[in-house]
Amino acid sequence: MARPREFDEERVLELAVQQFWERGYKATSIRDLAQAMGLTTASVYNAFGDKRAVYRRALDLYVDRSFYDRVGRFESKPPRQALIAFFNEIIERSLGDPRRKGCMLVNSALEVAPHDEEFQHVVAGVLVQVERFFTRCVEQGQQDGTISRHQTAADLARTLLGILLGIRVLARTRPERHLLDGLIKPVFALLDPDTAMQAGPSIS
Amino acid sequence: MARPREFDEERVLELAVQQFWERGYKATSIRDLAQAMGLTTASVYNAFGDKRAVYRRALDLYVDRSFYDRVGRFESKPPRQALIAFFNEIIERSLGDPRRKGCMLVNSALEVAPHDEEFQHVVAGVLVQVERFFTRCVEQGQQDGTISRHQTAADLARTLLGILLGIRVLARTRPERHLLDGLIKPVFALLDPDTAMQAGPSIS
DNA sequence: TGCATTTTAAATCGACCGTTATAAAACCAA
DNA sequence: TTGGTTTTATAACGGTCGATTTAAAATGCA
To answer: What is the ipTM metric for this complex?
Structure first.
């Protein structure tokens, strides 16, 4: 009935991800965005609505490609090895990032989410999913004896979530292998079941 | 010989910190900034140079007030208690932040530093100082027997740095006490010397 | 082949950006 | 009081922002 699109929506969204990922939301103008996507500003508005909507779609695509794909790849592995492989992959990804783009979700958590309720919910929701993945791994590992029982699965998963976010931030200003590899070593030791470690006294 | 300033430089810089801390660099316009500082834009430029210079001064002031003051307060304490108090204070600070401003240094690490070499160095330098504080605490604690020797002081300090940054990010989208308190518990256990924990095999 | 519809391209909208020019106001040494 | 100097307040600069208007180009259906 009408003139068809000259572009593939998902393909140009991938280009939008690159732009937003590298420069952030505010520093990316509609003109930057349109150029990166190979479109005119009118086409961007026609296809997606406004800048915020493009960012939302781009963030969703990023999360699908980055988190859920990775979780899916590791979910079937033995739980302890899944966690170790997960973090090693994050470290390699962080070190092999010369532009220091970091993690787009973390970037969004700090730049966009605090001033936008919808993005607050989106980011929080993804972090909950990541925490649940960690919890599943720890619970299974505690059942099959490959992960220590000296901390609850819930707490260990929370620690892993914190470490994950910490790595993502730290690597962006200090992408040093000895730092990230050293950082993760005590965390892996924490998972280790070959220990008589007691829960430390909780001093508040 | 001339007309004196009507404002105190440090006092208006504290107001600039508030503004930049809450809204970030890009989202704070010179007009926002001048209004927050109680000055005209001309006075801002006359006193500080340009927007970037104000941000630089504000970040320096924030770091002095937040990090170095805190480190100074804890440096004389018993090392293990210093670390525990440090993190408990960070958690309280993160939970008692209804505007979700987070940590201005972390915000700067993600928004400004990646695209500005000078700020990259500034932020990295502060993180090195924090890491050194952690290292000193862990080393002293390992010497006096209050901190486990199963991990090197360097690695434990790196883990603590990672956890610190993770808390700061996580609290900004999920400021939940059970999450932060639970997250830190295994980390404190990691410091605990009452353990026969072995270093976990490093699987890469 | 037209007609209706959508996507393009280009120009443009008012608003705001960082920054600066201008000149009045406020001070101190003389 | 005057002259020299700096800070103020106001207004404005050119540029870019997000978003839209206009009209030409491109389709599928009648």
So the answer is: 0.93
Are B96 and B50 members of one domain? no
User: Residue A36 and residue A54: Cα distance in Å, rounded?
Assistant: 13
**Do residue B102 and residue B49 come from a single domain?**
no
Of A173, A184, A189, the CB nearest to B127: A173
Structural domain contains residue A2: no
Contacts of B132 in chain A (CB under 8 A): none
Range with lowest mean pLDDT among A64-78, B21-35, B171-185: A64-78
Residue A38 touches chain B, beta carbons under 8 Å: no
pLDDT at A204 over 50: no
Q: Give the per-residue pLDDT at B3.
A: 64
Nearest to B188 among A99, A150, A200 (CB): A200
pLDDT digits (tens, 9 = 90+) for A90-141: 999 999 999 999 999 999 999 999 999 999 999 999 999 999 999 999 999 9
Percent with pLDDT over 70 in chain B: 94
What number is the average pLDDT over the span B123-129? Answer: 98
**B50 CB and strand C closer than 7 A:** yes
* Cβ count near A38 (within 10 Å): 12
Count of positions (residues) in chain A: 204
Residue A102 shares a structural domain with residue A173:
yes
> Are residues B83 and B51 located together in one domain of the fold?
no
CA dist A93 and A198 (Å) reads 34
Residue nearest to nucleotide C21 (CA to C1'): B42
Three-state DSSP class for residue A103: coil
Task: Provide the pLDDT for residue A147.
Answer: 98
Going by the DSSP 8-state scheme, the letter that residue B112 receives in this structure is T
Our count of domains for chain B comes to: 2
Residue B50 one-letter amino acid: D
Among B124, B192, B198, beta carbon nearest to A192: B198
Q: Which domain holds residue A153?
A: 77-191
Q: A203 and B156 in contact by Cβ < 8 A?
A: no
> Distance from residue A50 (CA) to nucleotide C2 (C1'), in Å?
35
| DSSP code of residue A27 | T
